[in-house]
Specification:
The complex is a heterodimer of chains A (306) and B (419).
Chain A: H1 13-18, H2 20-49, E1 52-53, E2 61-62, H3 66-73, H4 75-105, H5 113-126, H6 130-139, H7 145-152, H8 165-178, H9 181-192, H10 196-204, H11 209-237, H12 241-247, H13 258-268, H14 272-300
Antiparallel strand pairs in A: 1-2
Chain B: H1 2-21, E1 24-31, H2 34-50, E2 54-61, H3 63-73, E3 81-85, H4 86-94, H5 102-107, H6 117-121, E4 124-125, E5 128-129, E6 132-137, E7 139-144, H7 145-150, H8 161-175, H9 187-194, E8 201-202, E9 205-206, H10 210-226, H11 233-237, E10 260-264, H12 268-274, E11 281-284, H13 291-294, E12 298-305, H14 312-324, H15 326-332, H16 342-348, H17 354-367, H18 382-397, H19 403-413
Parallel strand pairs in B: 1-2, 1-3
Antiparallel strand pairs in B: 3-12, 4-5, 6-12, 7-10, 7-11, 8-9
Helix pairs in contact in B: 2-15, 10-19, 18-19
Classes of the chains: A mainly alpha (306), B alpha+beta (419).
Chain lengths: 306, 419
């Protein structure tokens, strides 16, 4: 259509604002501005500090790659990375298995399931909080609920849950597994979307419940499992509160999460430049694992090709 | 529609005027304990009641968290008055984060005539006065006096290390209570070495050999071998360094408790308040091979004014109030240490309760005649060094290393900027 010679009608301000792309931009502005100011700008600043010697109190001094060189020669860095991997790789699969089992149980709709869903979801809302961390510390303390219960069951002596490298880590893992609520909800909604006709067909072909689960439910859930796995893996790598409040990395740094190590370096030892470098290395690690998961996607994740 | 807009505009203007007339809000931040928080709050209330239009934002914290938070906060202008420590004074003043108080002393806004010159000097860096001492302290070994009295065990002042070890053994045998050799109390390490005429740091660098460090770690080794040392799992459960959760008063059976705690003289009150009913807290010196060489009086608690404060005059006036007001110090009652101003200290002397009189007597009669000069402030990076000491102590407790090995590693893994 030729535009020449056609005079554009004058539009009012209201009309201009109503245009789709402008309205969209205005409506997202609060988030966009917040995101730029409080995410992107600090990220850029931290990227700069990663190459600096910065003690928070005095101006940063450019030192090039020095932070990264110290990092890779520091035993504590490798230790905390190992601890974080262990935590993420043990707690995330366990949490997903739990979430799936509970979701399957709560799938049947009766009068009380709504209540149960809410109750099981609660821990994942409050689970990352300081209050629950403190509660956990009390529960597993020398005179805590867990030891008292064990004594009632006839166990002699007190188990020092936080005092031994082996058990201290597991208190944190159990706390993480307990927060399976959000994965459970996602599983629940995915389970509901599996067409009943598939199960009916399976039944006619003589498949029992177990076969139905492994041949119908699980394959159709793989996209959801994949999503949960990626999200929870990232959460696992970034876990902070549990470790910071409950164990502080003790004993002997056997529970020293990467983020707590980063925090310790930045704010306790005033080595914020080094801390920033640590943060960027973690970003790369997370990107690598996410990439790895995506690369394996085509081998095990069901895609609806219709 | 227009009416609403007009009303909104009026409300906005009104609120702007209100905030312009609003009172001055002063942010005061400190580290401490429950007792200190309550008394500081009460003293600030007193100030506010005497000065119209001034209100306070109080930000108390624990020692550890305090320094993490302050480092970031002081970059902005939110902090007005902050508690300062001798160990951090150099670092903060050299970076221009603290207000030089000299002009206020000259103008008379800050009166320090009654403060001993040496104590005033401890707040000086170069030519500037960056901190005013609000409490003089000394290292103090607090102990469960009730327990020891019941078992007929006596503790004497100025114990040597050997006497301390013998005492720990005796207490363990008679009562089952163990000993905590200052786990997490940074200054113990340097204190023990001073007894052997060794300075931990010199010219901003570490000044010890592995052999020196072993003298300290061997105390731990001895305690573990003989079984009377509080094991590390106790510290995995508690907030180390807080009065309220110290194994001397926190815990349920002797196996996880200590008969003593390496603290500071000003913490007796808080410890006594946090202790279970009926437990009397005793006070004596930290043990050392040579107590006179090791011990010192430390002007440890200071108030500083942040350089970026918007309320410099009021902030300085509060520091002045803290130093000179007898009424304020009647509330504070030497909880941070004995008031630096001699006049103020004399003014509250007869108001002190039994516990605080014990502290004053300890400072004046036990430490003052038997001590040396306070060690130079720790260089930057010291907190990382002390953290390493803690970690090595922990490994010793778990039997993962020996005293000799821990000492060698301490020298080896010491933070680069201290080498």
């Amino acid at each position: 259509m030729a535009q020449t010679g056609v005079v554009k009608p004058k539009r009012t301000l209201a009309e201009k604002l109503n245009e789709e792309h402008i309205a969209g931009m205005i409506c997202t502005a609060p988030f966009t501005i917040g995101f730029l100011l409080f995410m992107i700008v600090p990220m850029l600043i931290s990227a700069y500090y990663a190459f600096c010697d910065f003690d928070i109190l005095s101006p940063a001094v450019w030192t090039g790659l020095a932070n990264f060189k110290t990092m890779f020669s520091e035993a504590k860095f490798w230790k905390s990375l190992g601890v974080t991997f262990y935590f993420a790789f043990v707690s995330v699969p366990l949490r997903l298995v739990f979430a799936l089992i509970v979701a399957l149980i709560l799938l049947r709709t009766t009068k009380i399931t709504a209540l149960y869903r809410a109750v099981y979801y609660l821990p994942s809302i409050i689970g990352g909080s300081v209050a629950v961390a403190i509660l956990w510390k009390r529960m597993f303390g020398n005179d805590g609920t867990v030891n008292v219960l064990l004594r009632m069951l006839g166990f002699e002596g007190k188990i020092k849950w936080f005092g031994q490298p082996g058990t201290a880590m597991w208190t944190l893992i159990i706390l993480a597994v307990w927060q399976f609520g959000s994965s459970m909800l996602i599983f629940l909604s995915a389970l509901k979307q599996i067409p009943a006709s598939l199960y009916e067909a399976g039944e006619i072909d003589g498949a029992n419940k177990v076969q139905q689960f492994f041949r119908i439910t699980l394959p159709l859930l793989t996209p959801t499992i994949f999503f949960n796995l990626v999200m929870q893996m990232i959460n696992g790598f970034l876990a902070f509160t549990q470790c910071y409040i409950i164990t502080q990395g003790k004993p002997m740094n056997s529970t020293l999460f990467y983020t707590v190590y980063m925090y310790q370096q930045s704010f306790e030892f005033y080595k914020a430049g080094y801390g920033a470098a640590l943060a960027w290395v973690m970003l790369v690690v997370i990107a690598m694992f996410t990439g790895l998961l995506f690369a394996t996607k085509r081998f095990w994740v069901y895609e609806d090709k219709r | 529609m227009k009416k609403i807009a007009l009303i909104l505009a009026l409300v906005m203007i009104a609120s702007l005027c209100m905030s312009a007339m609003a009172e001055e809000n002063i942010l005061v931040t400190w580290w401490g304990n429950q007792t200190r928080n309550e008394r500081t709050h009460a003293a600030l209330e007193l100030y506010a009641s005497e000065h119209e239009g001034i209100s306070f934002t109080e930000v108390p914290n624990s020692w550890d968290d305090y320094w993490k938070k302050v480092a970031a906060d002081i970059q902005g202008d939110s902090i007005d008055v902050m508690q300062m420590d001798y160990q951090y004074l150099n670092q903060y003043s050299e970076n221009g984060l603290l207000l030089d108080l000299t002009p206020y002393v000259e103008s008379g806004a800050l009166k320090i005539d009654d403060v001993n010159e040496g104590i005033v000097g401890s707040g000086k860096v170069g030519d500037g006065l960056y901190a005013i001492c609000i409490g003089v302290n000394a290292p103090a070994l607090l102990y469960n006096k009730t327990l020891l009295d019941e078992n007929g065990i006596e503790v004497k002042d100025n114990m040597t290390l050997d006497e301390f070890l013998a005492l720990s053994r005796e207490i363990f045998e008679k009562t089952g209570y163990k000993t905590n050799i200052g786990y997490g109390t940074d200054m113990v390490f340097g204190y023990i070495l001073r007894g052997y005429d060794i300075d931990l740091f010199k010219d901003g660098k570490l000044n010890i050999t592995a052999e020196d460090a072993e003298k300290f770690f061997s105390l731990y080794e001895t305690g573990i071998t003989e079984g009377w040392l509080v094991t590390s799992d106790v510290f995995a459960e508690t907030a180390v360094g807080t009065v309220e959760q110290d194994p001397m008063i926190y815990g349920s059976d002797p196996e996880s408790m200590s008969w003593c705690a390496f603290f500071w003289s000003n913490q007796v009150t808080a410890m006594q308040n946090a202790a279970p009913e009926g437990m009397e807290v005793g006070i004596t010196t930290w043990p050392s091979a040579d107590p006179v060489k090791s011990n010192y009086l430390k002007p440890s608690q200071f108030f500083s004014v942040a350089a970026k404060t918007q309320h410099a005059d009021t902030a300085v006036d509060i520091v002045n109030f803290w130093t000179n007001s007898v009424e304020a110090n009647e509330i504070l009652l030497g909880e941070r240490g004995i008031p630096a101003s001699a006049a103020t200290a004399a003014g509250i002397a007869d108001k002190l309760d039994e516990v605080n009189q014990k502290v004053v007597a300890y400072i004046n009669d036990v430490v003052s005649p038997n001590c040396s000069a306070v060690p130079a402030a720790d260089p930057a990076g010291a907190s990382e060094f002390y953290n390493l000491v803690d970690e090595l102590q922990e490994e010793l407790c778990y039997g993962m290393t020996t005293a000799a090995d821990a000492a060698a590693r301490l020298i080896d893994e010491c933070p680069a900027n201290l080498k």
